[in-house]
Write a structure and sequence with these properties.
about 350 residues; alpha/beta; TIM Barrel; Lyase, Ornithine Decarboxylase, Chain A, domain 1; 9-stranded mixed β-sheet; 8-stranded parallel barrel
Length: about 350
């Protein structure tokens, strides 16, 4: 292929050590949702298998991709599951009596004890059982023969950067849930609440385990800055180089007018590959819309390109399109077949592009 995502083993190992030193004796779940945030779910699962305590995925399809390839337990973080995926290596999320009953029924047919964690709603208001339903839930689950409740968890809607007050309120709600369960039950459950940013910023949110996703792969939105580094880059082969005269307009809509005679590299890399698709997302509100607009204006004024050749930052010419992006390589020593490095986010990069872990 003329492009691939390259993951630095050295940087990834260093990020893991930084996080382990930060969390000390707290267990770590390595989160692999959304193709391991674009880094390759199978590649990352196999790499993290002996470095974390558990692996987390978003759904059954992701669980199927790595089940049987690793030794660690896999937890599906959303409360949906299918009969075919139920086995002893997978921990399921439930958030209602009905889902627990469904899991119990499937497990009974298979002759196994299915493992599960209860998701509690503490403010995200997406998945999760409400606190006032927990007692009834525990009472009914304790009578089920083919399921075992091993953990209690929730997920946070805020962090210390975007709304510290609300983040702390959610932590307090989860503490209340934990205290309440300990009053009505003698069972020893694993409690977990915080994902990357909140696990790093709020020590009181760590409980028995933290769920670490984007912090494994590089810097994230946190106040307590750790020296985490971006682990991946995308190498793209130049398929053509063309000369274009001064004052020519480049690309669709002619948005870029050349100020000098230029050498232009053509990269087979566009929306189809996941490049810049994030800028197509709709803003959630007028404030986000304004911020998005400001970023676009800034990007049009400054060279915000994330393409590099031998450490030199290159300028993108015109707007990217479905399959190609044009790069200014005037005065750069480059030929057809050479690689240009993209250092932008990997999250959206098409999963069909190979992921390779290198030293």
């Amino acid at each position: 292929m003329n492009k691939k995502v390259i993951i630095s083993k050295k940087i990834l190992n260093n990020n893991i050590e930084i996080l382990k030193n930060e969390f000390k004796d707290t267990k770590i779940m390595g989160v692999l949702k959304s193709n391991a945030y674009g880094h390759g779910i199978i590649e990352m699962a196999e790499f993290l298998d002996d470095k974390v305590d558990m692996l987390g995925v978003s759904d059954c399809e992701e669980a199927k991709q790595i089940n049987g390839k690793i030794s660690k337990d896999i937890m599906i973080l959303t409360p949906y599951f299918s009969e075919e995926i139920v086995d002893n290596k997978i921990i399921f999320t439930v958030d209602s009596i009905e889902k627990a009953e469904k899991l119990n029924k499937i497990a009974k047919v298979k002759g196994i004890i299915a493992r599960m964690h209860l998701k509690v709603n503490t403010g995200l208001n997406r998945f999760g059982i409400d606190k006032d339903q927990i007692s009834i839930f525990l009472d009914k689950v304790n009578k089920m023969q083919n399921v075992k409740l091993e953990g209690i968890f929730s997920h946070m809607a805020y962090n210390g950067v975007n709304n510290k007050k609300m983040a702390l309120k959610q932590i307090d709600r989860f503490k209340e849930v934990k205290s309440y369960i300990e009053q009505i039950s003698t069972d020893d459950y694993m409690y977990h609440l915080a994902a990357s940013e909140n696990a790093i910023d709020f020590e009181e949110a760590r409980f028995d385990m933290v769920r670490i996703g984007n912090a494994l792969y590089g810097p994230c939105q946190m106040k307590n800055v750790l020296p985490l580094k971006k682990i991946a880059r995308c190498e793209i082969e130049v398929i053509d180089i063309v000369d274009r005269c001064k004052d020519n307009r480049i690309g669709y809509k002619g948005t870029c007018k050349l100020k000098e005679h230029s050498k232009v590299a053509i990269l087979p890399f566009g929306f189809h590959d996941g490049y810049r698709v994030q800028k197509l997302n709709k803003a959630a509100n007028i404030i986000e819309l304004a911020k998005s607009g400001a970023r676009l204006i800034r990007d049009s004024i400054m060279n915000s390109s994330q393409f590099y050749k031998d450490g030199i930052k290159l300028k993108q010419l015109g707007v990217e399109n479905a399959q190609y992006t044009l790069i200014d390589v005037t005065n750069i020593n480059i030929k057809i077949g050479d690689k240009i490095t993209y250092k932008g986010p990997m999250f959206y990069i098409n999963s069909n592009i190979d992921r390779v872990i290198e030293e």
